TrEMBL record:
Sample GO molecular function, one term: glycosyltransferase activity
InterPro entries: Glyco_hydro/deAcase_b/a-brl, Glyco_trans_2-like, NODB_dom, Nucleotide-diphossugar_trans
Residue ranges constituting the Glycosyltransferase 2-like domain according to the UniProt record: 334-450
NodB homology domain sequence ranges: 85-139
SUPFAM superfamilies (UniProt xref): Glycoside hydrolase/deacetylase, Nucleotide-diphospho-sugar transferases
GO biological process: carbohydrate metabolic process
Keywords: Glycosyltransferase, Membrane, Transferase, Transmembrane, Transmembrane helix
Name of this protein: Glycosyl transferase family 2
Pfam families reported for this sequence: Glycos_transf_2, Polysacc_deac_1
Length: 475
């Protein structure tokens, strides 16, 4: 068996640890191997897989003008008829106001959060061809957040805040369910508005119907006021174009000085965009979408990158024009032979090693593990590095001692009762160096203890970093 010398001390309880990179020769000169170490390929693959997954996720998230478009949440840009109606209303003199991004409570937001939402709204307004001249805060009759820092932050963006003028009244809330002009609520509001003489009248797009329209027309025709502002809140992507067209006509009345549409660019969630435990379904869908991207793309990217790196590593090793496979050798090959009471076979084993046809530098280290016969004396007669342990400590101990003395880049292990054929070392080294993935090589073992009367062929296949060499070890 042969393996690359990437070990400190090896025993039966310790694992192999890296020691040094293998050097190979080119035209007689040694150079370091330039391939990626195989043990780093999974780490590199994971890094690139994470990078690819994050990049694709960010690209998908940012390339959409609004992530909500992928699910139930939409913007006014998704309703072309509404968009054309708003553009026509703006051309007729209607002021367009931002009414939050998703109808948030700006009194409870930080200035930074408010600006983030404001910029998203401005981006939609710009794409829709609308001028964002005013900000009207949701949940506030005056359209001004209670937080003065938020108000100041919005003003710094060059946008006015709230609706000027007093008194401000809201008469038509929940009139969407009204069914008759004789409704007491309608009659009471008709009398009340003439008493209040409001400067600003607030209504809501979702409450627009023939009763709301008639209520306002009757008052605007009969009043002597000249500077009335009509503000329609909650215009969103679900608002019918007819509501916009009807409300825009208020600019034609002499009593009206301004008509304001407070627009929610992304719409508000309601029956068509429900919540689950106070979490919007839209946000849940976003999470699942990104989660799917991660669990699907991460392992796929990891596998693809791993395969590409492994293939590139092999091709680079085999096709490197600077590499001459037949002429390259490691700096040194160390052959380790542990022996204990092997006086009958140790000589034949060493002679087989000395007679190898391997052309590169090689050292033979024989470790006598406290033999009580003539093993040590026989070893001493050969030109090998001899380690005499005196006391028997077991094969693992003998190998550890030999590894400490070994200087080679490749270690070859053989038993002292084995007899290698002439090309065994050459075959083992070539097989190991031809495949950059191989860290260990073994071969066919022929056991022939009785002058070739019987042969038992044992083929040993080691783990994934092991190669098989078609050479023979005779016992």
């Amino acid at each position: 068996m042969v393996l690359k010398n990437e070990i400190e001390n090896v025993d039966t309880t310790r694992s192999i640890k890296p020691k040094s990179e293998l050097n190979v020769t080119h035209k007689g000169k040694y150079r370091p191997k330039t391939n990626i170490n195989n043990k780093y390929i999974p780490v590199i693959s994971l890094f690139f897989a994470i990078l690819i997954t994050v990049s694709v996720g960010v690209l998908i998230y940012t390339s959409t003008s609004n992530m909500s478009n992928l699910f139930t949440h939409k913007t006014i840009l998704d309703n072309p008829e509404l968009l054309h109606a708003l553009q026509a209303a703006q051309a007729s003199g209607v002021t367009m106001a931002i009414h939050g991004w998703e109808h948030e409570n700006y009194s409870e937001m930080s200035p930074d959060q408010a600006i983030v939402d404001l910029k998203k709204s401005e981006a939609v307004f710009k794409q829709a061809g609308l001028k964002s001249e005013l900000f009207v805060s949701p949940y506030e009759i005056f359209g001004v957040p209670d937080n003065p820092e938020v108000v100041e932050a919005i003003k710094k963006e060059g946008i006015a805040v709230g609706t000027l003028g007093e008194p401000i009244y809201e008469y038509t809330w929940l009139w969407r369910n009204m069914t008759s002009f004789d409704d007491p609520i309608f009659q009471a509001a008709s009398a009340e508005i003439r008493t209040n003489k409001p400067i600003v009248i607030v209504l809501h797009a979702q409450d627009w119907n023939k009763y709301t329209e008639q209520f306002l027309i009757s008052y605007l025709i009969s009043t002597n006021e000249k500077d009335i502002t009509v503000r329609m809140d909650d215009v969103n992507q679900a608002t019918p174009k007819e509501v916009i067209n009807d409300a825009a006509k208020f600019t034609q009345y002499k009593s009206v000085s301004k008509v304001v549409f407070a627009i929610i660019p992304s719409g508000v969630y309601g029956p068509d965009d429900p919540v689950v435990y106070n979490i919007k379904v839209n946000d849940i869908m976003k999470f699942y979408f990104l989660f799917f991207i991660i669990i699907a793309l991460l392992p796929l990217s990891f596998f693809v990158v791993w395969r590409l790196l492994s293939s590139w590593n092999k091709r680079k090793y085999k096709n490197d024009p600077q590499t001459e496979i037949n002429a390259r050798y490691p700096d040194l090959v160390s052959v380790l032979v542990p022996a204990y009471n092997e006086e009958k076979s140790i000589g034949r084993c060493i002679e087989a090693l000395v007679c190898q046809d391997y052309g590169g530098p090689m050292e033979i280290i024989v470790i006598d593990d406290g033999s009580s016969d003539r093993t040590a004396k026989i070893i001493s007669t050969y030109p090998v590095k001899f380690i005499d342990l005196k006391k028997n400590g077991g094969k693992a101990n003998a190998l550890n001692r030999g590894i400490e003395e070994a200087k080679g880049d490749i270690l070859v292990f053989t038993d002292s009762d084995s007899n290698m054929v002439k090309d065994t070392i050459s075959c083992l080294v070539k097989t190991l160096m031809d495949d950059s993935d191989a860290q260990m090589v073994t071969g066919t073992v022929l056991i022939n203890p009785t002058f070739r009367r019987s042969r038992i062929i044992i083929q040993t296949f080691l783990l994934e970093n092991c190669k098989y060499c078609n050479s023979l070890l005779n016992f």
